[in-house]
Amino acid sequence: TISTYMRMLRSIYNRGVEAGSAPYVPRLFHDVYTGVDVRQKKALPAGELHRLLYEDPKSERLRRTQTIAALMFQFCGMSFADLAHLEKSALDQSVLRYNRIKTKTPMSVEVLDTARGMINQLRSNQEPIPDCPDYLFDILCGNKKRKDERAYREYQSALRRFNNCLKDLARALRLNSPVSSYTLRHSWATTAKYRGVPIEMISESLGHKSIKTTQIYLKGFELRERTEVNKGNLSYIKNYRLGR
């Protein structure tokens, strides 16, 4: 209950910062527990996840939302924050190398062949601005310095817009389960767990830093091993037979 109220307070604060009526304080809620009951289901059933990622919503706006969601899933359940803040320098040939926004954990994700076209669809064509991030995707403008309060407001607006579009996409595809930006991340992990992938590899693929998130890491996993897990997840959802 307390964490629910704290999430509400954080949401009100974010809206206040976005509206300019509250000062921006970096990591204000960093040490405040805002978790949710682990018994609450956040992952989509495989059939609904298949439809979310592959069924045509017959709307250009929702197709763009679907493309972003598909990339998040194909990048090992990447968070929306990490996806939106990826810079062009992160893409090294066929591998994404970046630090997670939340934990600063160094990450590497191999770009699957199926993701290349989607990357080009969303790729930003904006010329780099001195002292500003040169974003890979056209989700954020890239015309504000990284620590600028306006950059924080812009991200919060983008996140809210994406979550609203996800809800519209779910309605258009007649899904029964609620969908949010976190759903893709949790669904990737749940799919891997269902397929028998070790919890330690799932944890490392997601970039979890704290042992409280899953379990203590037994060892590091090679990029090749994590790529095979990612390919397996994608194949399982893509080829999932509806109605089985």
Would you write up a description of this structure?
The chain is mostly helical and 244 residues long. The protein is 49% helix and 5% strand. The protein has 9 helices and 3 strands. Helix 3 (60-74) crosses helix 6 and helix 7 runs antiparallel to helix 8. The longest helix is centred in the middle third of the chain and has 24 residues, at 149-172. The N and C termini lie far apart (38 Å). Residues 211-220 have low confidence and may be disordered.
Structure characteristics:
single chain; 244 residues; mainly alpha; hpI Integrase, Chain A; 2 domains; three-stranded antiparallel beta sheet; 9 helices; 49% helix; 5% strand; globular
